[in-house]
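Shift notes (night). Ran Short-chain dehydrogenase while the centrifuge was going.
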Amino acid sequence: MMYTVLAVLAVIVCAVSLYMSISIMRKQQHHERDHIHPTIARHPLLANPIVILYLAVPVLIVLGALVWWYFEIKGLT
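Came back to this:
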């Protein structure tokens, strides 16, 4: 039960953080910049490392938990 509550809280925190980051990025798109890489200009969300981390870290945590759970079942830990 406690792990479920912690997992739900983690998902909520990641979702709120992702929303806030995207909203800040969209506000900054209208500001003038000195130089911007063409890839970032075409794909501002996908080329942002923070957004990539917000998407990758939860996936890696779930995969790590599944590997840990697998070894717990097999009795290898």
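The mean pLDDT is 75. The CA atoms of residues 20 and 68 lie 32 Å apart.
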